[in-house]
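Shift notes (night). Ran HAD family phosphatase while the centrifuge was going.
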Amino acid sequence: MIRNLIFDLGDVIIPIDLTAPIRNFAIMADVSEEEVRALWKQHDFINHYETGLIDDSAFRVHVRQLLKNDAWADEVIDTAWNTVLLDLPVERIERIKELKKEYRLFLLSNTSPIHIRRVNQVLAGMGQPTLEELFERVFYSYDVQLAKPSPAIYNHVLAEVGINAEETAFFDDNAANITAAKALGIQAVHVQPPKTILDYLQDM
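Came back to this:
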């Protein structure tokens, strides 16, 4: 019997476009998208940011240095970084609120503080609860300094909230994350377009 539901955030709750920040930074810096992508990969600072090894300020410093523009204000960088986030379908939030009556709900996301602040701003603008209010517990990669698909992050969540893997369903759009969760006995569900999370929650 499933008693617990763990949700990924990007492309599960909120649609995302992973190419948008690269595209916007390339336009701002007047360089090619390929150059920006290569710099991201070479310096790996985004992974460091999302696992809490560097903070917001250090992240912005890296962006300014790599793209050679010290004049960009924090807000300019944050806005470009947040273009990854697309419109949030309110019906997904409403469905999650309904599920709270029957299940323990958790959020597990590889993400950054800038993104989480923006998602919560969007939710507030919609008259909806924040992520921290919507779920019993939220687990952000930058807080726990672990990231999916490492088995350690799943074990951390299970231990922290005292739940059993076999009684837990996990919804994620990334195949590697699904494989890792299944290996631990979690009932992992791969959310794939054209279906949305609502399709996978119909029978719950």
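The mean pLDDT is 97. The first strand starts at residue 4 and ends at 7.
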